[in-house]
Each structure stands twice: as C-alpha cells, then as structure tokens.
Amino acid sequence: MIEGLDPVIHAPKRLAAMAVLANASTASFRFLKDYLEIADSDLSKHMSALEAAGYVSTSKDGRGRGATTTYKLTRAGRKAYTAHRDALRALLDGPPPAASDPAGA
Questions:
Q1: By the 8 A CB rule, do 76 and 51 touch?
Q2: Of 71, 87, 62, 57, residue with least CA distance to 24
Q3: Rg from Cα positions in the chain
Q4: Which residue in 29, 41, 59, 104 has the fewest CB atoms around it within 10 Å?
Q5: Where is the Winged helix DNA-binding domain (predicted)?
C-alpha cells in the first residue's frame, strides 16, 4: 500500500499543485502562488520537480515582467496523481474489517 505513494507528488505543496491542476485545464504561476500561499522561488522549485518527472508541462507567453507561465497536467501526471490519490485513500481508510489483526483484538 505504501509503495503506491509517489514520492514526487507526496510533498504537500506538490500534492496541492497537482490537485489544482487535476481540476483545471491549466493554471498560471500567479494563481498557484496565490492559491497555495507560497513564495515564487518555492513554487518554482516544486513545479520544476513535477515537470522533470513528466507530470506537468509548462508554457510561457510573453517576455519580461509581463510574461505568463502556465502549467498543465500531462497524461502521465494525471495517471500518477490518480494512483497516488487512490493509494492515500486506501491508506487512510485502513485495512478492511476481515483483514484486521486478530491478535490485536
């Protein structure tokens, strides 16, 4: 069960960013920064890790101060996020009653 957790996604800020992207077609850097309430450098570091894993794609529009960076979940990212979310749910739900430890009862 624990092996189903993805260490790239599991970091709280990355998990939160993936949750946003799983529920939107795209999200801008500014939106994620404001929504997650984190610093530019912190968001940049986490989004770079997700991009390096192939979980998000990045597009940039414009140059300089007016540039906009936008993120989108990739197919691999959606699959990894869904698997991670399912593993978290299974972990939090605990074992089924029939699988409970009789020695602990």
A1: no
A2: 71
A3: 17
A4: 104
A5: 14-91
> 55 by DSSP, 3-state: which?
coil
Which token pair is 56? 């998000």
Domains of the chain, by residue range, sit at 2-91
- Residues ≥6 apart with Cβ < 8 Å to 35: 20
In eight-state DSSP terms, residue 6 is -
The amino acid sitting at 103 is: A
For domain 2-91, the question of CATH label 1.10.10.1100 is answered with no
What mean pLDDT comes out for the span 76-80? 97
Residues 71 and 58: beta-carbon distance below 8 Å: yes
